[in-house]
Amino acid sequence: xxxxxxxNYEKIAMGxxxxxxxxxxxxxxxSTMKQYETDDTKQLFLWKEEDIVGIIGTxxxxxxxxxxxxxxxxxxxxxxxxxxxxxxxxxxTFPNKELKPNEHTAAFFEKxxxxxxxx
Length: 119
Known about the structure:
Elements: E1 2-4, H1 10-17, H2 26-38, E2 42-48, E3 52-61, E4 65-73, H3 82-93, E5 98-101, H4 106-111
Parallel strand pairs: 4-5
Antiparallel strand pairs: 1-2, 2-3, 3-4
């Protein structure tokens, strides 16, 4: 289930985001978290099954596009389709917007088939 980020999830969110290659540096990670908390165009979502196991961060672009800035799944829960489930739930959250990867999330999109019948 996709849930919106709240401040009380900060440590979990930071832990998951730290798996992104661009977020290895603590200062960079803290800056990213601050952006998600203060910038109205940025939204962070967590994926919860029994526990929170994934994270997906977005930026609203030009009103009709949602760019995926970050997507990460806890390493012990990878290869179970959670990333695809997060993207599908995000499509349902923003039904009238086009989802696009950025340069850091494009590799994930290339590995997965996100055509309408598969996602």
